[in-house]
Design a protein that fits this description.
Blueprint (H helix, E strand, L loop, with lengths): L4 H15 L4 H14 L4 H23 L1 H4 L9 H19 L2 E3 L5 E3 L3 E2 L7 E2 L5 E2 L2 E2 L16 E3 L3 E2 L14 H14 E2 L14 H4 L17 E7 L27 E2 L4 E2 L2 E2 H6 L3 H13 L10 E10 L4 E9 L9 H16 L7 H31 L9 E2 L14 E2 L7 H22 L9 H4 L23 E3 L12 E2 L4 E2 L52 H12 L6 E2 L5 H6 L10 E2 L4 E2 L24 E5 L6 E5 L8 E4 L3 E4 H10 L9 E3 L16 E4 L3 E2 L6 E2 L6 E7 L9 E6 L8 E4 L25 H13 L1
Parallel strand pairs: 18-24, 19-30, 20-27, 23-32, 31-34
Antiparallel strand pairs: 1-2, 3-6, 4-5, 7-8, 7-9, 10-14, 11-12, 12-13, 14-15, 16-17, 21-22, 24-25, 25-34, 26-33, 27-29, 28-29, 32-33
Helix pairs in contact: 1-2, 1-3, 2-3, 3-6
The structure holds S-adenosylmethionine.
Length: about 800
């Protein structure tokens, strides 16, 4: 019968001791003691070619030497001493293995790294790629020697056949003898069996750790690294507020990357599972190992994993993944393996797209950092220019930057969004960043982490201003794609996509619940107000009738009225204000009298103070965009426009016109600051109630400006009279008509791919109108601009 694994290991250990000159009998005795002390944990004993065993034999011999007795104690009597020694050895081993340097070819080599290979000479990762496990067993030169499953003795030369038999060691100079033994051990090359896969249970307290001290001073120098956030193993930052809130929660019982602590599964795929597929030999070894180590902590329990994120005020971000273990066999996997496994797990667990790549995710993180910083720069510049009164918002010029994380090297000149002007500078920046980051990686990376050349990480191309798959950047319930089939202008000039209006600065918009009285909401309602026999209080505005059908479509009568108001304004009521903000903005000192503002029909939707649900049929506009729409480049020269990709019924809600809420004064300031190079303009006056207010000051009159912040409503082009959209004022959070939402509804059935248009109601002769006069290209047979042009040309002939 073949000897048991235990016996085989014992034989190998004794033989190794014999090879370096120890008496096999003594080796056996000491080995027995060690096994007892270390509870049969062969990993400790076999580490570094039985260094512990050799040391223990020396200790044993020394303990029998009366001179030595005073100084050292035998291993059997002092297990703690042996443990300490082992720890020291492990520390030495780790330190010596940390240095990774690029060689002449630019590749990295692990200094003093030793190789171990599995039975077939290679290990494969789960995608079938060969993975080399780096072990501290033999040098690169000795790599081939490791392939043979036998004990070899190497003293610079590999002797596969002849085994040297040195004589017994004489114990005179203990230090020298120890050195001697260690040298011999160092040259002893030992075949190691394929590594047994670790257990997967990870007690959370062992997983979490941090290398960043709690007492980071608050007065760090400007460009020093300060931890922004320490990600605990469950991914929750345990420190978010910078250096002063440095109380890192080491106690936090986290789970690493969604790992289930009790099962060891990561994102639905446990490590155990991951290794189940290995061959039967490994399974057998795993069970043997389990038997021997049943009461020992698992490898994972002996590791701590930390993610440190440090950021300097200069914009550099360092992300460090540290896995520290007291287990001598523990090695960091290569990045390739790590990425492959994480990607696999993520793919399995999160059902994310098959194209998912961790590297892309990291690039995305870099990109986000750059985006956020760039936006702050842009805001600062805009503020500066606004104050200087010399702002030209028109070209929507923006900042181009190096997308690597060195914001110090950021290019700040204004260039076109195609990035053409700044490439040289970006290259230079990247070069600087690459060099320094590469060096840092060399120092900080643990033994088998290969520094990634920064050009792989850096996003080289300038960031596109918009996501062509979704211009709304996920802010809406539906994605809104972007397409230009006519020119090289791939994207519209940059603007911030916002799904809801935001106050720019001085606009007074009072959203307080206290202002909504009982008559302005339906507190007693429940569920869907449209399903109740008696219309709720919110219909007061619309004469006790809901304006929506159960299908969420605007009712015919109401829609007709709104369309008629737009098409035939003269037939409808107008307000005339005492001091018209529009006239005042044209001539402040001597304003003309008000030309009148249409008395518009309002929709009042239910809201949060009401008792009904968010799905209530009287909440159509606030539920935002639901239709399949697309921003596209128009063929006629109107620039970008909005179209539908689906057939739309008459009365369907399309979108709100969203922008910054400005006072009339603010809009006026913005308008006069324009130098005239602006191609398009995007303001809308919220004048539906101006006439009802006896005297409305400019700083009270509101408007929406979608130039810098807006939604897809800003792309709706103008069409004279027979536009297929009509704007309707809608309110829900405020009971008066001072501030309201502007919603677009279809005026007729619309085919898929038809452009959506709206009659801006502008007077093409009025050069002072906030919407800058443009040559109308609406192609409507009712085009007011064309009529005007014709009339002019007739008059001149
Ligand atoms: C609210 S924006 C519409 C989106 C704009 N086309 C774009 O590319 O961003 C209004 C501007 O679009 C252009 N525009 C809209 N309707 C137009 C039309 N019928 N004819 C010519 N230009 C039009 C004008 O420059 C106008 O100032």
């Amino acid at each position: 019968m073949a000897p048991s694994a235990q016996v085989q290991r014992a034989q190998a250990a004794v033989k190794a001791m014999k090879l370096i000159g120890f008496d096999p009998g003594l080796a056996k005795v000491v080995l027995k003691k060690l096994l007892k002390v270390y509870e049969n944990n062969w990993e400790y004993i076999e580490a570094e070619n039985y260094r512990l065993l050799a040391d223990s034999i020396l200790d044993d011999q020394e303990s029998k030497d009366p001179e030595a007795k005073e100084n050292d104690d035998a291993v059997s009597d002092e297990p703690e001493l042996s443990r300490k020694r082992l720890r020291r050895q492990q520390e030495e081993l780790q330190l010596s293995s940390l240095i990774i340097k690029p060689d002449d070819s630019g590749e990295t080599s692990v200094k003093r790294a030793k190789m171990e290979e599995s039975v077939d000479g290679s290990l494969r990762n789960r995608r079938g790629k060969a993975v080399r496990h780096v072990e501290a067993q033999c040098s690169y030169e000795e790599e081939n020697a490791c392939l043979s499953p036998r004990l070899l003795l190497g003293n610079g030369t590999t002797k596969a056949t002849g085994i040297l038999e040195p004589g017994p060691l004489l114990i005179h100079d203990r230090d020298r003898d120890r050195r001697h033994v260690h040298e011999r051990l160092g040259s002893l090359v030992c075949y190691k069996e394929p590594k047994i896969e670790p257990d997967t249970d990870v007690p959370s307290e062992n997983v979490v750790g941090s290398s960043i001290p709690d007492n980071v001073p608050c007065n760090e120098p400007e460009n020093s690294y300060v931890p922004l956030a320490i990600m605990s193993s469950d991914g929750v930052p345990s420190r978010l507020a910078g250096p002063c809130s440095a109380n890192q929660d080491k106690e936090q019982k986290g789970e690493f990357m969604g790992r289930n602590a009790s099962t060891g599964s990561v994102g639905g795929c446990s490590i155990q599972e991951a290794h189940k597929n290995h061959n039967g030999v490994e399974r057998l070894q795993a069970s043997m190992q389990k038997e021997l180590m049943s009461e020992l902590p698992s490898v994972q329990e002996r590791c701590s994993a930390t993610i440190d994120i440090a950021s300097s005020t200069m914009g550099e971000v360092k992300l460090t993944l540290k896995c520290i273990s007291d287990c001598p066999e523990f090695r960091m996997p290569t990045l390739e393996t790590l990425f492959t496994v994480v990607e696999d797990r993520c793919l399995k667990s999160c059902k994310i797209q098959p194209k998912f790549s961790l590297m892309n995710l990291m690039k995305e993180i870099c990109q986000c950092a750059v985006d956020i910083a760039a936006e702050a720069v842009k805001d600062a510049q805009r503020d500066k220019e606004t104050h200087a009164g010399s702002l030209n918002h028109d070209g929507m010029a923006t900042i181009s930057f190096s997308s690597s994380l060195n914001m110090d090297a950021m290019e700040t000149s204004m260039v076109n969004m195609d990035g053409t002007q700044s490439s040289q500078k970006i290259d230079e920046c990247n070069k600087t960043v690459n060099e320094s980051s590469f060096q840092e990686s060399c120092i900080n990376t643990s033994r088998s982490l290969v520094p990634i050349p920064q050009q792989d990480l850096a996003v080289v191309a300038p960031r596109p201003p918009h996501d062509e798959n979704d211009i709304a950047k996920g802010e809406e319930r539906v994605r809104i794609s972007l397409i230009n089939e006519f020119t090289n202008e791939k994207y519209p000039p940059y603007f911030h996509y916002i799904p809801q209006n935001v106050v720019y600065q001085n606009a007074y918009v009072n959203f307080s619940l206290a202002r909504i009285g009982d008559v302005d909401c339906c507190q007693d309602c429940f569920g869907d107000c449209l399903s109740t026999p008696i219309p709720c209080a919110c219909t007061r505005e619309t004469g006790g009738e809901f304006v929506y059908t159960r299908d969420g479509i605007l009712k015919k009568e109401f829609l007709n009225e709104c369309i008629s108001m737009n098409r035939y304004p003269d037939k409808h009521h107008h307000f005339y204000c005492k001091d018209c903000p529009i006239e005042k903005s044209k001539n402040e000192k001597n304003p003309e009298s008000c030309k009148g503002h249409l008395v518009r029909k309002f929709i009042k939707e239910c809201w949060s103070k009401c008792g009904c649900s968010k799905q209530c049929g009287n909440r159509v506009v606030q539920r935002s965009i639901t239709r399949n729409l697309q921003v596209f480049y128009t063929a006629e020269g109107k620039g970008w426009g909005l179209r539908t990709l689906e057939e739309l019924p008459r009365g369907a809600f399309i979108c709100e016109y969203i922008g910054e809420i400005l006072t009339n004064t603010e809009l006026y300031d913005r308008t006069i600051q324009k130098t005239g190079s602006a191609k398009h303009s995007y303001p809308v006056l919220l004048d539906a109630d101006w006439g009802s207010e006896a005297s409305l000051r400019d700083e009270e009159a509101l408007c929406l400006d979608a130039t810098f912040y807006g939604n897809i409503g800003r792309f709706v082009n103008h069409r004279c009279l027979d536009a297929n959209l009509v704007e309707v004022p809608v309110e829900w959070e405020t009971p008066d008509h001072h501030y309201y939402h502007l919603a677009f509804f279809t005026t007729r059935k619309i085919e898929a791919l038809e452009e959506l248009t709206w009659d801006y109601g502008i007077d093409f002769d009025d050069c002072t109108h906030p919407v800058k006069a443009f040559k109308c290209l609406c192609a409507s047979r009712y085009c007011r601009d064309r009529k005007r042009s014709k009339a002019r040309s007739r008059a001149s002939t």
